[in-house]
Fold this sequence. Notes:
42% of the residues lie in helices and 19% in strands. With 308 residues, the chain is α/β, with parallel strands linked by helices. The protein has one domain: TIM Barrel (Alpha-Beta Barrel). The chain has an eight-stranded parallel β-barrel with strand order 1-2-3-5-8-9-10-12, surrounded by nine helices. Strands 6-7 form a two-stranded antiparallel sheet. Strand 6 (147-150) and strand 7 (155-159) form a beta hairpin. The chain is globular and about 60 Å long.
Amino acid sequence: MDFRIFIEPQQGASYETQLAVAQKAEALGFDAFFRSDHFLAMGGGDGLPGPSDSWVTLGAIARETSTIRLGTLVSSATFRHPALLAIQVAQVDRMSGGRVELGLGTGWFAAEHEAYGIPFPAKRFGPFAEQLEIVTGLWNTPLGETYSFAGEHYTLTDAPALPKPQQSPVPLIIGGGGAAKTPALAVKYASEYNSGFQDDAGFRANIERVRAAADAAGRDPQTLVYSAAVATVVGATEAEASARAARIGRDLGELRTHGLGGTPAQVIDRVGRLQELGISRIYLQLWDLHDLDMIELIAGEVLSAFPS
Length: 308
């Protein structure tokens, strides 16, 4: 089981805070540090000191870490032209020595688009599918050749398809609960399918749809990594876990069902159930980025129960 730290810095996190979490995660043996790709705080709060761009931030963190993998869960197709995204990700992959992974999604948060004047199309799946084709097409174009694309939403003409990422291929993550389109795209393009914030039955249903789509497309379902994103609050005692949940405005009982909540023993129990569903990678969504003690507790008591 891989354990990855996943943060939501749009809620309020400086670069220094994000770096401290990434370096702590690296030192404690977590597999990766991932962040969201949003520009507006959600559910109240001032979001100070303000939003940070995911790929600018990850590029800087890449130079301040050495082993931990880095990525987005997920970059929004509505924020980024696919050719520019391909360049950004390839450059950060080079800067990190080949430690980058790209999570890409359709985008969904209309309010942040309105706030910053970013167009928010009513139909986003078509552009998203073309973005996957373009990003992977640019990376896969042989050196010395050019890449062109003529679609409904994007047109590229004789792009030099540079720079190339260090990894070939860069791991691509696609997630969501769509019944047909999302599983089909995950099977076609992704190395990993991610499902988020579900109870056990929800995770099972999502994974089964992707496995069925893989079978239909002639891809071995076992060639995909199945991962889960879960809001996480852990305490050495029930009282400590409850206090931590209260600080971020969450109910510990709800977290036990749709996230990871409680004592290390309770969290280990749910991770075991997720593992039985075929999930081999967990993104621990953390909301209190100054609570580094909780990261140490998870590393010492939970990771050790699932040796890699």
